[in-house]
Design brief:
The chain contains seven helices and no strands. By secondary structure, the chain is mostly helical. The longest helix is centred in the last third of the chain and has 30 residues, at 91-120. It starts with a helix and ends with a helix. This is Helix-turn-helix domain-containing protein.
């Protein structure tokens, strides 16, 4: 999966193997072996490509279909937002707020997932 994602990201960026290799301070043959599966990436190399393409290492490895981890719903942020906005509300209003926030985040995640699927087609 890694090699497929790396190749896909390079093509989406409109760059050649040589151009990517130069930008990440790697030789073109070394990059070629990495992209074609002849060489397993080290943790450092994986992180380098993730940073270069602005994706997560999980996305590169095929463990996630979400490219950018900042787009994922963070439950800690959700909880903090709920706490900060629910002060002084009645129990019914708090329940409504929690429901509204949950629906908003689920809808946002659905749209992100649709966008990711459309990019693959």
């Amino acid at each position: 999966m890694f090699t497929e994602r790396l190749k896909q990201l390079r093509k989406e960026a409109g760059l050649t193997q040589k151009e990517i290799a130069e930008q990440v301070s790697m030789s073109q043959p070394q990059y070629n072996r990495t992209e074609n599966g002849g060489r397993a990436p080290s943790k450092e190399t994986l992180e380098l490509f993730a940073k270069f393409f602005n994706v997560s290492t999980d996305y590169l490895l095929g463990n996630s279909d979400i490219r950018n981890p900042e787009e994922e719903i963070d439950l800690d942020d959700f909880e903090l937002l709920y706490r900060n906005t629910s002060k002084g509300l009645s129990a019914e209003e708090k329940n409504q707020l929690a429901s509204d926030l949950k629906n908003f985040l689920l809808e946002r995640q659905r749209l992100i997932n649709e966008r990711e699927l459309a990019k693959r087609d």
